[in-house]
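Reopening this ticket.

The earlier resolution said the output was attached, but the attachment link was broken on my side. Pasting everything inline this time so it's all in one place.
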Amino acid sequence: MIHPLLRCSAALLCLLFAAPAVADDTTGAPPAGPVQWDLEALDKAPHFTDAPISEPGVRGIFFDGLSWKGKPTRVFAWLGLPDRAAGDKVPAMVLVHGGGGTAHARWVRLWNQRGYAAIAMDTCGAGMAANEPAQKRLEDGGPPGWDASFTQVDLPIEDQWQYHAVADIVLAHSLLRSLPEVDAERIGLTGISWGGYLTCIAAGVDQRFKFAAPVYGCGFLGEESSWTPTFEKIGSRVAGKWLALWDPAVYLPQAKMPMLWVSGDLDVSYRLGSLQKSYRLPPGERYLAIRHAMPHGHPPGETPPEILAFARQINSKDVPLARMTVQGRDGRQAWVQFAAAAPLVKSQLVSTKDLGPWHKREWTVADADLDKTTARVTAELPEGTRAFYFILVDARDCVASSEHVEIGP
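Inline output:
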């Protein structure tokens, strides 16, 4: 059965890639994207103060956010610096949590242990207070987030959750750049689930980031995602307006930095087809790390080794991740050419004979033939294959994957 939103996909795509002016239209016609932020103001480091809470090695802070409904807001964040020699400047990361979550001190510590400064901010108006380890809604925290955003599209743009969440990411970046211990030209961005969604938008808004690594998150959410029932429920006008304003597909064509896409073939929220359309949009260098049956959430999204390897590749000219350069198929014989600097330990073909929603398909993993001399991987597709992709694994346990390929009847 074709979802009702798919029947108007052509019209929605026209809206998604329309001119950049945005009007707050409540008459029924979705506005054109993308939204514009005052980057001259956001590029300045926000004022921040210590929060009455800390954890080993990291400090809780509040920084000034944008006004919401005409009133000031503040953003809670964890901020941490690694051990370093006096006078050394270190690279840094901005960390964006997933839906239903909050800023995670452990995530900051993880990057500190790797030699990076890091900041993880709450994007939904929650904070933490002394002796209260759980997140708590702040009176001056700004708009509620995640799924609440579907009911906000008829509000003024500056009162909607994504407007504030993306601004918070840019402000956190500006705060890091202002620290004397941080190398402002070596700051990356990564986010998980809804944080990966925000990473896709922020990468198209803030061109100062050295690289971006969305985990799970992508665009084209009106075509196939866990929110397609929500779009159907809220109706075509509201759904179309939300997609035109806030689908990452609107912003990804402006993301020019190198990007690493990390996800799983069975991800229920951000599906493989929408992911592929998304990673094809940015004009910059692209790396894929699609793992078979990768779990969704924290901490699985914090710890894939590809993200650290990618950061070191970009910031320190370290050994790069492998990449598939060309791929093809002749009947049931499939192949990819690759470039790899680190030793490879495994090559695999991942295939499915199923059709239907990506997250419900059964995938089979089999060894593929790896020829290091010709930098080529080959495999014979099982009879009846409907989709497949290749995986390479190097000695660091870093995954590089090809694009998935669909085969018609």
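Reporter confirms the inline version is readable. The first helix runs from residue 4 to 7. The chain is about 25% helix and 30% strand.
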